Amino acid sequence: MVRNQSRSNRKPSGARYKRLIVRRQHQSGGLAAHTRIGAKRVRKIRTIGGNHKTQLLADNTASVVDSNGKHHKATILSVKENPANRHFVRRNILTKGTLLETDKGLAKVTNRPGQDGIIHAKLQ
Question: Considering the chain, what is the average pLDDT of its residues?
Fold first, then answer.
């Protein structure tokens, strides 16, 4: 199923716009990656201009930065809090801003794993 990211056919008052616009391919959007905790799975998506975007579907490790600025590889244990959606905590879905419990301590995701292909986090 394709998601359309064009303007609505309805005005704020509820009336319809006179001319209906035909859906174009550049207005279509993709489905959300819904990155989860598990064995690493990656999907490559072709974007405009022939470029590629790496979608991270699942991973159980994160690149964590401590207070000194050093990077460590940490194992993700669970999702503690997700500001995007409260139901994502139960489903262990990772988005930007998610609070993770790792073997190094609590960490906050600082990137968009569904679009970057890796999980970057900062220790709390």
Answer: 92
Give 25-52 pLDDT, tens digit per residue. Answer: 888 888 889 999 999 999 999 888 999 9
Give dist(CA 49, CA 41) in Å, integer: 25
End-to-end CA distance of the chain: 39
| Domains of the chain, CATH where assigned | 33-123 (3.10.290.70)
Closest by CA to 43, choosing from 112, 109, 94, 117, is 117
* Other CB atoms within 10 Å distance of the CB of residue 72: 15
Q: Phi and psi dihedrals of 110, rounded to 5?
A: -110, -5
Which of 43, 70, 63, 44 minimizes the C-alpha distance to 107?
A: 63
Residue 19 CA: distances (Å) to CA of 8, 91, 92: 12, 42, 43
> Global pTM?
0.81
Q: Which of 124, 111, 1 is nearest to 59 (CA)?
A: 111
